[in-house]
Design brief:
globular; alpha+beta; 4-stranded mixed beta sheet; 14 helices
């Protein structure tokens, strides 16, 4: 008998024995659902405060977008990033402060493209820009050092997996049959699946401006902020000038709606791509599983109009790599193809994710191979490719789609543009944000003049950092008394556009865990946590709460 066969037989025997097969019930003070950066900081803080904690993660890779390609961090004012979030970026600094970290370029040759603040802040000992695998290692180090129990690839049974009694979650059950009992639960997913399954109120889409007296919510036709719009008149039809020929792929037949009105549409998703131009670490752009050159005809017309900004969001991260994001009127964002994602089944979501992958792979393959692409841009593009040393178990493709927005909780307190823009004071702050009111495009349509245009892209600068209210991460008390939601928190669509940054999610995850501990120790509903006690603990953790 070979050693491998012996090990296999032993493994099968152990898995079949009652002691192994019947262990499907797990208990902890705090149960965290999600594998995002907020989930990890929440887990670390709960453990630091002496509570037992279990992270139930649908993801295999931990850290969400922070380790999934978003390495060119959207920070805003870095001074308001404290606590474990700042510790994360300090650890990134410590990694890149060693010569061994610089495999594909010299440390001194790395610069920050056009940024006023350096990526590597020596005085603060932080670094804000990093490779995906480095971020994932920091997350895994957090887990290992704090001895966090993480159950990966465990998906909440969204139909009957939440057991509630008298407005209190008793347990959650995953599709594999594992049951997790807890005292307080934290939904740290991008989708808000636990929140929704617990029957907590939420919103999907854009509110009308009239709902909260806002200006930048709802439909925003003819509003152009970031350069992600059609600056020139481009024909939308397959045969230019012939309406009967049909619209080009990706252009909606629907009327975009009345400016300021609400709808159920979502800002676009995309993968944040880690590309490299180092020949030894570069993989040629692969042809996607489903590819149709006609899907990218609109891109040809944009180039023909004189557009040349192809590389403007190839943001540099260490080792001659990029965090490549959407830029321009037709780019990485798969506009209008995510509307059903928040409420979709897991199977339907996987199809949407795969469609996004095919779209972006197809876009790159098309630009790299089609003869109609301007040769100077095509030649330059072909110096790039996927990074061979990133996402090794996923064909070098990011494992996390950028879910910019899905469900948002509807609690007794809703953060709106008024708080973000400093027009209204925020009660009981638990962290701060500072980023621009930011929404990506929501739809692509035909204007009344007969040309193609995008809608939904907003960028309005916050005049100063703002606080985020504790009440925005807890549900209405009548709906659930032991759930906290630090990612899909209670905000309007446009306010979420500023709050939805990875450092902020880390901050809110830590603060949620701190509040959960107070709730457990006091036998209190999360809505009844004494703010003075919470504030004192958060300040001790070096969280930044207000200016």
């Amino acid at each position: 008998m070979t050693n491998k066969l012996a090990v296999l037989i032993l493994s099968v025997t152990l898995l079949a024995s009652p002691a192994w097969s019947q262990k499907k019930i797990y208990d902890a003070d705090i149960i965290i659902y999600g594998g995002t950066s907020a989930a990890i900081t929440a887990g670390v803080q709960a453990k630091k405060l002496g509570k037992s904690v279990i992270i139930v993660s649908p993801d295999i890779h931990l850290g969400g977008l922070s380790s999934g390609g978003l390495g060119f961090t959207d920070t805003g004012n870095k001074e308001v990033i404290g606590g474990l979030a700042r510790e994360f970026y300090h650890r990134i600094y410590m990694h890149y402060n060693t010569d061994a970290a610089w495999k594909w370029q010299k440390k001194e040759s790395y610069g920050n493209k056009g940024q006023g603040t350096p990526a590597m802040d020596g005085s603060e000992r932080t670094m804000w820009i990093f490779e995906p695998h480095v971020a994932e290692k920091v997350m895994e180090d957090f887990v290992k050092e704090n001895k966090l129990n993480v159950y990966r690839n465990e998906w909440l049974d969204r139909k009957k997996g939440v057991h509630k009694i008298n407005g209190k979650i008793i347990s959650i059950t995953t599709l594999s049959g594992k049951k997790f009992n807890g005292k307080v639960f934290i939904d740290a997913t991008y989708e808000g699946d636990l929140m929704a399954a617990a029957k907590v109120s939420y919103h999907v889409g854009r509110e009308a401006n009239s709902v909260y007296g806002e200006t930048w919510n709802g439909v925003q036709t003819e509003v152009f902020h970031h350069g992600h719009y059609f600056a020139k008149q481009i024909d939308p039809y397959k045969v230019p000038g012939d309406k009967k020929s049909g619209l080009l792929t990706g252009i909606s037949k629907e009327n975009p709606g009345i400016k300021g009105d609400g709808d159920q549409k979502l800002q676009a998703y995309c993968f944040r791509l880690c590309l490299t131009n180092h020949p030894e670490n570069r993989i040629t752009f692969p042809k996607p599983d489903r590819y149709n050159p006609a899907d990218y005809e609109l891109m040809v017309r944009i180039f023909q109009s004189g557009w040349k900004e192809l590389f403007d969001k190839f943001d540099p991260i260490p080792n001659r790599k990029t965090d490549t994001n959407n830029h321009g009127p037709f780019s990485m964002d798969y506009i209008g193809m995510n509307y059903s994602y928040p409420e979709a089944s897991y199977k339907e979501r996987q199809k949407i994710i795969k469609d996004h992958e095919n779209y972006q792979k197809g876009l790159l393959y098309f630009m790299a191979t089609d003869k109609r692409i301007p040769k100077n841009l095509q030649d330059r593009l072909n110096n790039w490719g996927l990074a061979k040393d990133e996402f090794k178990d996923n064909g070098n493709w990011p494992h996390q789609l950028y879910i910019r927005e899905a469900r948002r909780m509807l609690s007794d307190y809703v953060m709106t543009e008024h708080e973000i823009l400093g027009k209204r004071e925020v009660p009981n702050p638990i962290g701060m944000g500072s980023y621009t009111l930011d929404s990506h495009n929501t739809q692509r349509y035909v204007t009344s003049a007969g040309f193609v245009q995008n809608e939904g892209d907003i960028g309005v600068k916050a005049p100063k950092p703002y606080s985020i209210a504790y009440e925005a991460i807890v549900p209405k008390e009548k709906e659930c008394t032991n759930l906290m939601v630090p990612v899909c928190l209670s905000t309007s669509h446009i306010a979420f556009g500023s709050i939805r940054m990875e450092p902020v999610f880390m901050i809110l995850g830590e603060s949620a865990a701190t509040a959960a501990v107070i709730s457990i120790d006091g036998g209190l509903a999360v809505q009844k946590v004494p703010y003075a006690q919470l504030e004192k603990m958060l300040l001790q953790q070096k969280q930044r709460l207000r200016l």
